[in-house]
Design goal:
Enzyme class: hydrolase
Organism: Clostridium ljungdahlii (strain ATCC 55383 / DSM 13528 / PETC)
Largest sheet: 6 strands, mixed
CATH topology: Rossmann fold
Structural class: alpha/beta
Strand order of the largest sheet: 7-8-9-4-10-11
GO molecular function: ATP binding; ATP hydrolysis activity
Number of strands: 11
Pfam families: ABC_tran
CATH architecture: 3-Layer(aba) Sandwich
EC number: 3.6.3.-
Radius of gyration: 18 Å
Strand content: 25-35%
């Protein structure tokens, strides 16, 4: 039986001043699973995610989403948290989400739904600038899932979190496939990813060196280092 992929790329590339930030990337994201996009800083992960969310235009290649060629209309079915959460510090959690439901034309009842999902229902009148880092991350995720996305993209979501914040966020992310969401999670922290993801893609120097299902007991660090060594030898410059 053919696997059901929500998103696939074909030879996706992004070139900056003749350097390949992303080099002919072919990734396949199975529907309703968590896919870990791994790589050291500068491997091309964020550039890839920015192309998938329309923040960057690909130099070449193709993106297929939910059975058709990706267009900007597909952004209504994609939620993303890339870099810093889009938070207004002088507003409460509920007020922050109200801004986005108004922009998206969503019903106000959705605000309480997502606050419950991310466990921020008890923040009351507390302004977001006084939230912990973990609370800010969860509020950013709440914003990203307001529109019931089919695909949720999270770029290094545990950065700066303490162990409790990481544990809470891990539990939250693992719940999303049950809500009908496919998740792409980028990270450079191998120990964290292997506790969350079902599938993994490993990037180095803009190249996808490995892609596959995560098997119990597999040594991701050894695999990661092997891919990094192989792709370092395979780098090329755009002509």
């Amino acid at each position: 039986m053919e696997k059901d992929y929500l998103l696939e790329t074909q030879k996706l590339a992004k070139v900056f001043k003749k350097d390949y930030a992303v080099n002919e990337l072919d990734i396949s994201i199975p529907r309703n699973h968590i896919y870990g996009l791994l790589g050291a800083n500068g491997a091309g992960k964020s550039t890839t995610l920015k192309m998938l969310t329309g923040l960057l235009k690909p130099t070449s290649g193709k993106i297929n989403f939910d059975g058709h060629t990706w267009t900007r209309k597909d952004l209504r079915n994609i939620g993303a948290l890339i870099e810093q959460p889009p938070i207004y510090g002088n507003l409460t959690a509920e007020e922050n989400l109200k801004v986005h439901t108004t922009l998206l034309g969503l019903p106000n009842k959705r605000i309480k739904e997502v606050l419950k999902i991310v466990d921020l229902t008890d923040t009351g009148k507390k302004e977001a600038k006084n939230f912990s880092m973990g609370m800010k991350q969860r509020l950013g995720i709440a914003t990203a899932i307001l529109n019931h996305p089919k695909l949720l993209i999270l770029d290094e979501p545990t950065n700066g979190l303490d162990p409790i914040g990481i544990q809470d966020l891990r539990k939250l992310i693992k719940s999303f496939p049950e809500e009908g969401m496919t998740v792409i999670l980028s990270s450079h922290i191998l120990a964290e990813v292997e506790q969350i993801v079902d599938y993994v893609g490993i990037m180095s120097h803009g190249i996808l060196g490995y892609q596959g299902k995560v098997n119990p007991g597999e040594d991701l660090e050894e695999l990661f280092m092997s891919v990094a060594e192989k792709t370092t030898r395979g780098r090329r410059i755009a002509r």
